[in-house]
Amino acid sequence: MAAAQRHSPFGVGVIAFVLAVSVSIGFYIFAYLPVITARPQIPEEILEPEKTIEILIIAGSADPEQEQNYIQKRVEVQLGFDNKVIWINKDTTAHTVTTDNNVIDKYSGLFDSLETVGLVKPGESWEFLFTQEGEFPYHCEPHPWMKGLVKVIKQKF
Fold this sequence. Notes:
4-stranded mixed β-sheet; 3 helices
């Protein structure tokens, strides 16, 4: 008579573990990763606008008594025409361009220079590509009296 085979509970556990890890890796690679890394489909004219808008952070902006600190303080841009904005620091002090309401653009990410370059040092610049309509108020983190607004509208023509 043949001897009965004995199955080790350890062997079954190893097989279950390997199977669970394989399923988890498969889910991560084929389901989770593509969704997380996918960028939205944005028309080319919005990603490559014809013009850029420059906003100057002028000398003396760190002084709370100075009323004018951004030239232009309020700008209106059109998607697909001039929706890339560049802030140029002409002051002798470092500044930020920080969203007032934690705006996250679906393509460009968080509207905040601190997240990408940190402080915008004197003579340096920071740019942001707006890809959606709306009003985007911002300020300088170390100098909260410095405030500006970018209004993004659909292209007029």
